[in-house]
């Protein structure tokens, strides 16, 4: 299930418009609730937004974002 969640979040970060109903249904099929899907979306979008701000300002990312 972790791979499914990571693939979903990666898709959201790269091209949110390309997320399919099938991807959402796969998550639900694994027992992920709608509230958890929303939470995943919020975290993915926050991370993308934060990264864009850091890149635009040419500052170092927060240490917790470093791989």
Number of helices: 3
| Helix-and-strand structural type | mainly alpha
How big is the Rg? Answer: 13 Å
SSE succession? HHH
> How much helicity do the residues have?
over 70%
- Amino-to-carboxy terminus distance: 21 Å
Give a summary of the structure in a few sentences.
This protein is mostly helical and 67 residues long.
Q: Describe it for me?
A:
The chain is mainly α and 67 residues long. It has one domain.
Keywords:
70% helix, 3 helices, 67 residues
Reconstruct the topology from this structure.
Blueprint: H1 2-15, H2 21-29, H3 34-57
Helix pairs in contact: 1-3
């Amino acid at each position: 299930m972790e791979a499914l969640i990571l693939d979903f979040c990666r898709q959201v970060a790269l091209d949110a418009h390309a997320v399919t109903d099938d991807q959402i249904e796969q998550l639900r099929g694994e027992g992920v609730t709608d509230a958890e899907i929303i939470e995943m979306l919020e975290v993915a979008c926050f991370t993308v937004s934060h990264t864009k701000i850091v890149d635009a300002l040419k500052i170092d990312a927060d240490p917790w974002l470093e791989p």
